[in-house]
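look at this record:
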Amino acid sequence: MSEHLLRHQLNAEFHARPPLPLNGSTRIRHLAFLPGAHDVGFQREYLNHLLNEPEWAVSEQSDSYCVVAHGDVKVRWEQHTEFSSFTLFEPLDAKGSAKSALDARTLQRWIAEMSGEAIVVLRIDHRDARDLAPDTVMDAIYPSAQQMVVARIVDGKAWVFTDFQFVDGEVNFLLIDAGMTQRQAGRTAQRLWEIETYRLMALLGLPVAKKIGTWLRESEQKLAVLTDEIGDARNTLDESVALATLSKLAAEVENSVARTAFRFGAARAYSAIVMQRIGELREERVTGFPTLKEFMERRLAPPMNTCAAMASRQSELSSRVARNSQLLRTRIEIGLEQQNQELLGQMNQRAKHQLHLQETVEGLSVVAISYYGSQLVHYLSVGAMVAGVAVVPEYATAVSIPLIAVAVWGTLRLMRRRLG
């Protein structure tokens, strides 16, 4: 059997980057970076630097994925299309304190040394319900005015708490495990950090939408003024000036579309992933608190609608500019056709005049040729009379004139038919 060259590579990619199972209480720090041109290579070198330190070892790796471990502590690196991420897994004791051999300063130093601009800094505390009961957390929340997102997830086997606020630069999630398997816990934690990561990545489109909003209003007003000018144009020069201005506006619109199409498309895709991951959590409402889905529909949907509206307005503006350009070009072409018809009419009139002149010239030509021909006959008759032939030159000349005229006229008619 002949195998496709990419068969094994595609299957390996399909199974790549599986969620890491969580064995007991774990603190997860997830960081996403927007890397520069050389940052991705630096990050791989950074991981290799970790491997040179004692007790670090690779547990999984590929071209865009790597997991290194130091006892119970694991560091996971992933390269995505637009960003890269580091995820640190650190075991906690029953009181929620770190119990790894690595001290906090070492972890903080590693986080600070990571290359790229951080877009996401997230902490998830995965706790066992036997160590930290959901009711205890709820009792601590109720007296405060702080808005929290609370939901039961995974068919009631877990609770999630968050406010999506930055606390010391981090967004904090509390995931209380009330009966999940280790792999369920790993998948749930991954969905939570993906929700936060793709939420912020989607919101990158909002500043772009706000920036082009003013430009779009000005361009739409400019197009309206140009449309009025096109309607008021009275000659080809006015139409040519309007077409040049319209072509410049079309270039600006297409340039804006080219610069923002990726960002708006990415925002749409990222927001769809956020809602998909929330759906996979299988949320159940907790009385008095919004769910993750409700929170995103209220807070994330409006910015995404703004991005979609700006993208739609750009597309509509591009279509309107194209339609106006086409109408103006059609109008100019019709004007040119009318000018061409007038020129053709003038040429036709000149051709008629030339034909009449030619007919007049032909008549004069018949007279002139007949005259010269009769003179030749006269000279020949005189010569013949001197030679003794009985001929009267005047009679011979008179008789030859109509014969010569008819012959010349017939010859010219025959030539005209052949040339026509």
About this structure: The two ends are 76 Å apart (CA to CA).
